[in-house]
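Jasmonic acid-amido synthetase JAR1
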Amino acid sequence: MTICSSEEIIDEFELLTRDARRVQQDTLRKILELNGDAEYLNRFNLGRRTDSKSFKSCIPLCVHSDIESYIQRIADGDDSPVLTGKPITSLSLSSGTTQGKPKFLPFNDELLESTFQIFRTSYAFRNREYPIVNGKALQFVYGSKQVFTQGGILAATATTNLYRSQRFKEAMKDVMTQCCSPDEVIFGPDFHQSLYCHLLCGLINSDEVQFVFSPFAHSLVHAFHSLEEVWEDLCADIRDGVLSKRVTAPSIRQAVSKILRPNPELASSIYIKCQSLSNWYGVIPTLWPNVKYIYGIMTGSMEPYLKKLRHYAGHLPLLSADYGASEGWVGSNINPTLPPEEVTYAVLPNIAYFEFIPLEKPKWEETEICSSVHYIESEPVGLTEVEVGKIYEVVITNFAGLYRYRLGDIVKIAGFHNATPELQFICRRSLVLSVNIDKNTEKDLQLAVEAAEKLLAAEKLEVVDFTSLVDRSSEPGHYVIFWELSSDDGASEDVLSGCASCMDLAFADAGYVGSRKTQTIGALELRVLRKGAFAQVMNHYLSLGGAVSQFKTPRFVSQSNSKVLQILSRNVTRSYFSTAYGL
Ligand code: AMP
């Protein structure tokens, strides 16, 4: 039966979550029954057992590198039951920006179905607070290329797999709002041209647009930043009904030209509105007066973009989208009125089997927020056994051949909805900065950048994006933080060197502070980049097959990532060393 109305979807969700414990056992049983022939499970002598106790005692926890060779065999065309009973016919390419390189992950119909369920659930809750009636959505969605592996398996980013799927379109037509842009724009061969046309189609439909969406907040900010640069061209296109020459891809040109008609009245109203804005504050409600909210993932590594997004959004609420990964979905945002900083995700107990590795801070590290090695791990617990206020790493067993797979994300249990936990996303587990005994994660880095950014406020400047590396080219090694600022001029030398010192002091873990005091870690260095440097970094990742929709700026660049290092190095304009611990 297809569940259509929001109330029916919510009722179904309530039923599932009330009985989360049993639903989890059933889900595991189903996964193991479907995949009883899988070589991976048989290697660990699970036999045909489907209970959680046998499963946990036979199958070890794993990370991507443990199963990479299995996935490679699938990519090479091995259609025996490697990870799943039924052969895997498509692969997802994770963004790779969180871990340095894109990874292949198995994708199948069951994962697709779980996507529908997650989207429908959050849409139903959202719609209760902010009803969307016969409107359209301005969606900044970009498909990546679909490629076939040597073995003939289809590989693309998870977003592409989704938007390409006919099933997705059919299953979601009751609950998904119509996108302003034709498919040719989403799947265009050039992201800059697609972005331009998303904006154009959005403006043509400006009165009908009821919400603005992109999978991650980064691409929302990127889109409106581009609008600042191309608005006059967009107005000219609408005035004359002729698409700008910058759009050269025939597929996009043809599709957009069909919907573009000369409309001087609309063009001049957009022109006047753009001119009336002060520094583009509130551009979204100004140009799209019927928009009710802005939607996209805004937690975790997307938090640094919130300030800019709020600037563009004016009075409109920002609603964070759901929590998941190319490995599978985890939870829905069922409290859409919460600001992104407080958002939690309710786990859907039938989309996968979840375990949580309890992480505890040793007593001597009370101040630490998220440094991985400072956590003491204990045995994983089940979905309904987690405790409010505690911190865990998420482990997923899904329908597409991942068994007890460590997702690498740290979450905090904020509460329960019926019997299912509501998770607050804390950060990625991976360590970013370490010279010796110091350990700092992307969250620690984010907090340090935020602390120093306050010093820029007086100069009316903002940090547009940032990343970091450990420089060991001279002794002792030191942290390098790269900043791209909202303007290439303006910041005084004193302020920027103050920012370097401020970040140096903001890394407060005992290992860092101790090493700085004894000068076994050198002074933190702030390197300021030319405007547009991070756009070049993104373009580099896109050239590796990534999709803009899933792009996350890498917060740490390793020495082996020579291409990104080159981009950063050639864009450095100035550099400042901290004086926080003396020279
Ligand atoms: P990808 O590699 O592109 O599949 O990205 C998956 C990763 O994005 C997850 O493992 C998380 O670290 C991050 N992510 C996904 N959804 C959210 C969310 N709602 N909040 C914070 N981070 C998220």
